[in-house]
Design goal:
591 residues, hpI Integrase, Chain A, 4 domains, mainly alpha, three-stranded antiparallel sheet, two-stranded antiparallel sheet
Length: 591
């Protein structure tokens, strides 16, 4: 294919025209810099001419001495080829965007004489760009000051072009870059392998970079009250999502996503105001900024909040019937204790009270009026997210599952020579709840296993809901609320402020664990049909099957009725070998 001619103008994937003009120094290397000139070809060509003119002018000024009385604008006598500096690059970007007249504001703490001097210096350096002082009174006052202060500057100030902009040594994108570097250096948590960036720190960095991607660069001097409000309003008004790869329609971003980015902007402003690296300070009316994110019409009229999605008894029975031993344990811990992935993944063997009595059984009996039975088993746990303390009476089915998990963990740790205390570990000895290899996101083991179980059920029951793993927690809380009340349900969910774990009186009078235990025991009796739906040996690992459970059950039933394998295969719609393999496996399992 012949090489594209440099004079050809071809838009990029977003319809913009791009050209390389000048050079920058990045990471110690000198490389060409790309400018985007919009999506109109004629305008793009005109803007390119203006940027090239600016580049040529700055190259000519490379060795010129600085103006008398003002700070140097370019290196004097420099031997290195000229590269875009921050100030010139900002002016060039402004020209590339098609701006001819640029309104310039003054800094909050900037005196009139400083404002005028800054405008004069920039006007001299960029004579081909038109600038308009935003604060005309301050500009005129500064000009008058220089006329009185220095006679030799009178002519300069009087004839100073009004097409002047402020010095751009500090910009929004530069601030975001330093803000993310600050997060990487401070939002750390201790780990056995050393300090590591927290999950929330990763989230803040992603949000800050998305703000940088979505909102154009600008001088920090423009971020007065109205400038800050403009940045916030972009997210308050729910910008559209990016175009989907498969051509789906763009929609306003979710309210939660926009609220998170509004919060990140506020954190950026507060950090920036305290930073020694920047002169920007919060405007006086900073606390009056509007931060509420707008609803869209369909959200205002929605009634989805009226009901929480939960599993009913029939659906729970199907989940227990189709589950593997590990999936069954996740199901039971979610229902019995309201545990999501973070709680199940951080559950340690130290939290299990299976072969030892409840440590505070006398207090439970005297204060909570709950009598621990000899066969009662418990989990005592502080929630990973909020550190709120919780206690849970375990159903016999849950106890059996936990004992299976302990044996599984012991076998893995013994084989690998590990001393891990987590209840749930992978076959490679890694905790279920962990960061991915890139140390960025949490592992999706729980979601993946739950999605796999749901898919198997939906092959036989297409109408089965594809709820997320967290629905188990909602289902357990819903059962507790109907068995007791909202207060006990909140205790079940470990809501509220953390309690002092060494203050038993506060612990057992303010948090009614006795009532919670009674509710859990009552729910366990109501769920007996769900537990009975499991296979004969719930903790035996099933063999790999390529037919759905419903088909396998039907094949076994037809075979027991006296049909030959070929007749069963024809009736069910599978091959004869599939029937023979199933009968062989079933016979071996029963021997």
């Amino acid at each position: 294919m012949p090489k594209k001619d440099a004079s050809e103008w071809q838009p990029d994937g977003r319809g913009r025209y791009r050209r390389m003009v000048g050079w920058i120094v990045s990471a110690g290397k000198r490389q060409q810099y790309p400018f985007y000139f919009g999506s109109n070809l004629d305008q793009a060509k005109a803007r390119l001419i203006r940027v090239k003119e600016l580049w040529a002018h700055l190259n000519e000024q490379q060795t010129r001495a600085p103006a008398v009385g003002f700070p140097p604008t370019l290196p004097s006598g420099a031997s290195e080829p000229y590269s875009w500096d921050g100030e010139a690059l900002w002016v060039a970007r402004t020209l590339a965007e098609g701006n001819v007249h640029v309104a310039v504001g003054s800094g909050k703490d900037e005196l009139p004489d400083q404002y005028a001097a800054r405008l004069s210096r920039l006007g001299e350096r960029f004579p081909m760009v038109h600038f308009v002082p935003e604060d005309r009174a301050r500009f005129d006052g500064g000009s008058a000051f220089w006329r009185k202060a220095a006679e030799h500057q009178v002519e300069q100030i009087r004839h100073m072009p009004v097409n002047v902009v402020p010095e751009v040594s500090e910009t929004l994108h530069e601030a975001i870059d330093k803000y993310t570097a600050h997060i990487r250096a401070t939002d750390l948590e201790p780990t056995p392998s050393g300090p590591r960036l927290t999950g929330f720190g990763n989230c803040k960095i992603e949000q800050a970079l998305r703000i940088k991607e979505r909102q154009k660069d600008q001088p920090l001097s423009q971020l007065d009250f109205h400038g800050c409000q403009t940045l916030l309003d972009y997210w308050r008004l729910r910008p559209l999502t990016k175009a989907r790869r498969k051509g789906g329609p763009q929609r306003p971003m979710t309210k939660k996503t926009c609220e998170n980015h509004v919060g990140e902007l506020l954190r950026l402003f507060r950090w920036l105001s305290k930073s020694k690296d920047f002169r920007w300070r919060k405007p006086e009316d900073f606390d009056d900024l509007q931060t509420n994110v707008k609803d869209i019409q369909e959200e205002r009229t929605s009634i989805g909040f009226l009901q929480v999605r939960v599993y009913d008894r029939v659906q729970l029975a199907l989940l227990n019937k189709y589950a593997t031993p590990l999936e069954r344990l996740l199901l039971l811990l979610g229902l019995n204790c309201g545990f999501k992935g973070a709680e199940q993944g951080t559950l340690l063997v130290d939290h299990l009270f299976l072969d030892r009595p409840h440590p505070n059984a006398p207090m439970l009996r005297e204060v909570a009026k709950f009598h621990c039975q000899p066969d009662d088993k418990f989990i005592l746990y502080s929630r990973n997210k909020s550190k709120v303390y919780g206690e849970f009476l375990l159903w016999p089915q849950t106890v059996a599952g936990i004992r299976w998990a302990v044996a599984r963990r012991d076998e893995i740790c013994t084989r690998l020579g590990l001393a891990d205390r987590h209840l749930l570990v992978t076959k490679q000895g890694q905790p279920f709840f962990r960061r991915t290899e890139g140390n960025k996101n949490q592992s999706q083991i729980f979601s993946n296993k739950w999605d796999g179980l749901t898919r198997r059920i939906r092959k036989d029951y297409p109408e089965f809901p594809a709820y997320p793993f967290s629905t188990l927690r909602d289902t357990g809380a819903d059962l507790v609320r109907h068995a007791a009340d909202g207060e006990v349900s909140a205790v079940f969910l470990c809501h509220g402020n953390p309690v002092r774990k060494d203050n038993l009186l506060e612990l057992y009078t303010n948090r009614p664990f006795g009532r919670l235990f009674k509710a859990i025991r009552e729910i366990g009796e109501e769920l007996l049909p769900v537990f009975e739906a499991a296979p004969e040996d719930p903790w035996e690992q099933p063999m790999q099957q390529y037919s759905t459970l419903t088909k396998r059950e039907r094949m076994l039933a037809l075979s027991k009725s006296g049909l030959r394998p070929s007749q069963v295969a024809k009736e069910v719609g599978v091959s004869k070998m599939t029937v023979l393999r199933l009968l062989k496996k079933h016979s071996a399992a029963n021997d």
